[in-house]
Amino acid sequence: MKGSTLGQIGLCVMLGVSTVAALPSTAGAATNDPFAASLASDLVRSRAQISIFRYDDQQDLNCVDKRIVRSSVVNRPRVVNQELNERKWIERWALDRCGQEVQYHVYFTEVGAGGAFYSFKQVGEVIDIPVQYARTLKLQQPLMKGKDVRALQVALLDKGITVSTDGVFGPKTREAVMTYQKKSGLDADGIAGPATAESLGL
After folding, report:
1. Which of 40, 90, 179, 190 fits 174 for a cystine, CB–CB 3.0-4.6 Å?
2. What torsion, rounded to 10 degrees, do the Cα atoms 24, 25, 30, 33 define?
3. Which residues contact 40 (CB under 8 A, 6 or more apart)?
4. Backbone dihedral region of 31: left (phi > 0), alpha (psi from -120 to 50 degrees) or beta?
5. Is residue 6 over pLDDT 50?
6. What's the CA gap between 130 and 95, in Å, rounded?
7. Chain-centre distance of CA 77, in angstroms?
8. pLDDT, tens digit, for every residue of 162-193?
């Protein structure tokens, strides 16, 4: 599965211990769902998997047959911010890279109800991995808050759109999104979905 360089919103620098081993021919056969142990939602998990495949393609250009064969939870979710209801946890995913098992740590953060972002690294590497955001930002009650909202606001500011960078998606942020969408020929609905995020370089 080939892909392009990942979009960048923020950077996470993480350390790990090397783990690359021969993959038994029956690996993953006993479990129908390799993500049975994962705590992430289907959407976030799917986006994380795509990002890992794209990154791994750069490590081994000759292997096109890759799949996640199992997952496990390293650290259970813990609340790191009561006000935002922000929870973090770590999972370890085993990737079958054409007969070799390569393990990745996936770092998840959930903010509020349904909002989430993730980062990842191959176990054993010290690398900068872009944080990938996996929620559509819009005006709602309660107001959406978090690092992804602030990243959106900073990107708008960089485009010359006046907006606060407080990390809260309020009416002013919605107006700023609409202003940018109109200038960019996008559907001016005030919702920062995939098209708007890509246009902003997020």
Report:
1. 190
2. 90
3. 48, 91, 106, 108, 116, 118
4. beta
5. no
6. 19
7. 16
8. 888 888 899 999 999 999 999 989 889 999 88
